[in-house]
Amino acid sequence: MKRFFVIALAVLFVVGMAGLAAAGNNPLKAAEKGVHKSFINEIPADHMVDVFKLHKVWQKAMADPAYRKKVYLIDVRTHPEFYAFHIEGTDHIHAGHMYTIPKKIKDPNAEIYIFCRTSHRAKYVAGFLYKYGYKNVYCVAGTTKNGKKYKGGVVGWAQAGFPFVNQFTGVFTIQEYRKHPSKAEKSFRVREFHPY
Prior knowledge:
Blueprint: H1 2-22, H2 27-40, E1 48-49, H3 51-63, H4 65-68, E2 71-75, H5 79-84, E3 91-92, H6 101-104, E4 111-115, H7 120-132, E5 137-140, E6 143-145, E7 148-150, H8 153-159, E8 164-166, E9 170-172, H9 183-186
Helix pairs in contact: 2-7
């Protein structure tokens, strides 16, 4: 009886894994793209800015305390992403908690810059903020400058060689932004905690 149960469980596992592999044609993926586009359409074209514009605004905010009180530079990545590294002096609200922004920023005319890792989440959040009634929201998206493509968000910021900070290392630049860990990084032998 145990042998039959183990064989049946193995068959169910194989069938389940085959079903997951076949789910690659996810009809919801196309729907998500349509919803995402609807939020992008909420953002005025001249309010889609690049990391170079963000850098200029950031420099001004860091140098001028009066301006810093009027502008919000909001990183909407997850908490682990933000604490690993972020742009110094920026604000942080996880994209999933964007509903808290109207409680924190009560002026609908506030100057707000939204960015994430690239720009996908930032476009959702910026679109939502326009739906909430904000008038002066900028989304940090990709661009091409001097023939080189730059992504939006912190990936584009890293590509441009702009600085980051975290509580452990201080100020640094990223020489190569990796979406996934390298083979060497995955080949560690002993680590107490690791994210992959």
